[in-house]
């Protein structure tokens, strides 16, 4: 099969490799579509503290048809359409798994880090963790919901907002676009912030009520005046560390900043921002982390996707074009999500 293989940081090519074999409780999936997530680029380039094992096949937003089932597989059958997300599997027994927060399982297995990813004609999934795909979901626009979409949807859920509340979305990349789509569906007032005016324009077209360039000098004052004291929540998808400082400065009292975008590690191998202890205490503000989503969150995010709330795909590509997309992603030039369509033979 054809696969996009990464052999080291910035070292990748499309190659012919063996089709993986489904083991116990695993299924073989022939991919139809797969989104390209910023995380793929970070993992491939070893930008994060956790080192990948090369050679590897990235990709964790795949939709395809099960063509073979492994031993003891009882819940999934050949012909089923399934989604392969960021979480390949979890232990099923720990307090997080039992409590419906399996994404926090300390023994979770991540697609592409320890199991082959979805940038290939075939991949494998675990029968308990592949995601059912709703019948009427557009599988091209819907594939990125499996990571990008659910990540933004779950971050908004964490912020626990009410209809009419103000939410600032910092960083209008793939996650930011999803955050706008879901925030719109939730009836929120949306402020989009980025440093790229083209991205801000697309944010406006997709439903942001206000847009601001992060370099604009009176940004904080203007946002405080529009929102009468600051936003109820910030969904921070930016990969710039400073954006988290900006996020704190535009929160209203009791506001929450939800961190979802992971910047690359600094020269000390750390990813951090300075936080004012006094301002956090006196404003009773909260900083929350949000990592992807559970199977339940994904089900909800896909259900909203089936209702057509997700915007169009930024760019439909072939497996051979992932390298170009990685280039654009690293320069911050990709507008919307790139999705691989395996059904077209380019
Ligand atoms: Zn567990
Ligand atoms: Zn992802």
TrEMBL record:
It catalyses: a primary alcohol + NAD(+) = an aldehyde + NADH + H(+); a secondary alcohol + NAD(+) = a ketone + NADH + H(+). The keyword Nuclease does not apply. CDD domains: CAD3. GO terms for molecular function: alcohol dehydrogenase (NAD+) activity; zinc ion binding. Its cofactor is Zn(2+). Signal peptide: none annotated. Residues 8-340 form the Enoyl reductase (ER) domain. Transmembrane segments: none annotated. Belongs to the zinc-containing alcohol dehydrogenase family. This is Alcohol dehydrogenase. It comes from Metamycoplasma auris 15026. The lineage of its organism: Bacteria, Bacillati, Mycoplasmatota, Mycoplasmoidales, Metamycoplasmataceae.
